[in-house]
Amino acid sequence: MTDTDVASVVPAGTAKAPSGTRRRAWIVTALLVVFMMINFADKSVLGLAAEDIRQDLGLSASAFGLASSAFFLLFSISGAAVGLLADRVRPKWLLLIMAVLWSVSQAPLAVGGGLAVLVASRVLLGAAEGPAYPVAQQTTLSWFPNHRRNLPGALIVLGITLGVLVAAPVLTWLINHHGWRSAVAAVALVGVVWTLLWIPFGGEGPYATTSDNDSPAKASSDEEPGVGKGAEADTSGQAQPKMPYRRILATRTWIGVTIGYFSTYWVIAFALVWLPSYLRDGLGYSSAVSTQLLMLFWGLSGILVLGQAGLSGWMLRRGIASRWARGGVGGALLLISGVACLALPVAPAGAVTVVLLVGALGFAGAMGGIAATTVMELAPADRRGGALGFMNAVVTTAGLIAPTLIGSLVDTHGARGYQYAVLITGALLVVGGTAAVTLINPDRDARLLSV
Fold it and tell me: SS in 3 state form for 78-109?
C-alpha cells in the first residue's frame, strides 16, 4: 500500500504515516534545521567581529549599526514577495536559490573591500535570507498534521539557537586567528555544501496543498508546481475564488502573532548585533566571559523553545484550544521576558544581572515557532506561504530599526545607551506578550474565514 493509499482510508490527524514518509519528513526537517543554523551563522558574523570590523574599516558605532541594518533593507520586502511566490512555486527550489545566493553575496566581502562592499554584501545577503524562515517553516510543517507540528516547528526555531551556539566559538576562533574575513568565507562555504545535500533530499510533504481538516491523499511531495494550488472546487465541481490575503491579515490572530513575533525579532536583532558589545562595554565582562554568557543565553533559548513545543503539543493533544496552547503559552513567555528586561537596569551588578539578562532574552525566543504553527493552522493551504511571508515582512522590520537605533543611543549616551536599549526592548516585549494573550485565537478566526 502506498503513502497515498494510507492517507485516503484513514482521516488526517489520526493516521500514523508510513515509515518511509516519516523518515523522509525528519530528513527534510534536519536539513532545514541546518539551513537555519547557516542562516543565523551568517547573521552573527558582524556581531562577533564587531570590534575588528570597526577598527579595520574605521567605523563609528552609528556607522556600524547602519551597516548592520543594511542587511534588513530588502529583507522584509523579499520575505513578503517570496512568501507569495511560495504559494505558486515549489518551496524546494526557492530554498535552493536562497542558499546559493547566501554564498555568492558573501564572496566579495571574504576577499576584500571596505564599507561599500560590506554594505552591498549585507543588502544582497539580507534579500536572500529574508524569506528563509517562513519558507523553511512552510516546507517543514507540510510533512506533519496540525497537532504534530509543534516539535518540527520548534526545531526550525532551534536552528537559530544552534547556529549561534556553533558559530560563536568556531567563528570567534577564526576571527582571532585568521581575521574576520576568514569567518565570512567559512559561512559562505558551508552554504555551498548545504545546497549539494538539499538537491537530492529536499522537498515538500503530503500536507503541502491540503488544509488541516483534509486528507493528504491529494498532495504529493513530487507534485508539479501549481498543482493543487489553484482555485478550490466545491462539491458541484465549480471553481471557488481564492481567499484574499487581506482577510487573513485582518484577523486578530494574525495581528496578535505578528506583534508578538515582532518583539521576539527585536530581541534577536539586539542579541546578534549588539549583545557581545553590551556585555563587554556596557556590563564590563571580558571577551571570554561574554562568549560564555552568549552561549548560555542561546542555550536557554533553545531549551525553552523545545519545552514550549512539548507543552503546547501536550495541551493540543488533550483538546485544549490553540488560543491557550499557543497564544497563552507564547504570550506568558514574552511577558516574563519583558518584566526581566525592565528590571535589568536597576538590578544590582553580578549574578542577579546575569540571571535577568539571560532570562530576559532567552524566554522570548519561543514565539517564533508559535507564530509559524499558528499561521499554518489559521490560513487555507493555498495561502500559507503568503500569510507567513507577510508576517515575516512586518516582523523583520525590527531588524532594520533595532541595530541603527541602538547604535545611535550608544554614540549619544555611551555605555548608558545600552540601558536605554534594554528598557525599549522590555516595553516591546510586554506589548507583544499582551497582544499574544489577548488576540490569538486561531480556532475562532479560522471559522470566521470559512464563512
Answer: HHHHHHHHCCCCCHHHHHHHHHHHHHHHHHHH
Which residues lie below 8 Å from residue 250, measured CB to CB, with a gap of 6+? Answer: none
Compute the CA torsion angle 254, 258, 261, 262 (nearest 10 deg). Answer: 180
Predicted TM-score (pTM) above 0.85 = no
What is the residue whose three cell numbers read 506583534? 259
Element (H, E) at 36: helix 19-48
C-alpha cell at 415: 555605555
What is d(CA 107, CA 266) in angstroms, rounded to the nearest whole number? 28
Q: For the segment 135-191, what is each residue's pLDDT rounded down to a tens digit?
A: 999 999 999 988 889 999 999 989 988 887 888 889 989 999 999 999 999 999 999
Cα separation, 181 vs 184, in Å, equals: 5
Can you tell me the distance from the alpha carbon of 395 to that of 75, in angstroms, rounded to the nearest whole number?
Answer: 10
Q: In the structure grid, which three cell numbers stand for residue 360, read together?
A: 530576559
The label of the residue with cell 552554504 reads: 191
The C-alpha atoms of residue 380 and residue 230 are separated, in whole angstroms, by 12
CB 445 within 8 A of CB 252: yes
